[in-house]
Amino acid sequence: MPAMKIVDGLQEVSDMRAEVxxxxxxxxxxxxxxxxxxxxxxARDALDEVPGGCRHSRAAKAFLVMLTExxxxxxxxxxxxxxxxxxxxx
Length: 90
Description:
By secondary structure, the chain is mostly helical. It has helices at 3-10, 18-31, 39-49, 58-72, 83-88.
């Protein structure tokens, strides 16, 4: 589902339900990505769709923060500790 459509839907959500609605919107966005699509690239494209000067509800802002986090692609790679040889050195 296009991010702008989700943002539009989140504009009317009450502040009490903002976080839950933002997460639901994010999950809907993620699960509708085409198979094999890069989430980071799709998030950057989605953020480009959203006009910058608009006022957004709390739910819409939370959704956009989630997209921004995915767009930054801060995935941490696991670090090898060296296995048995690494433990012997300690």
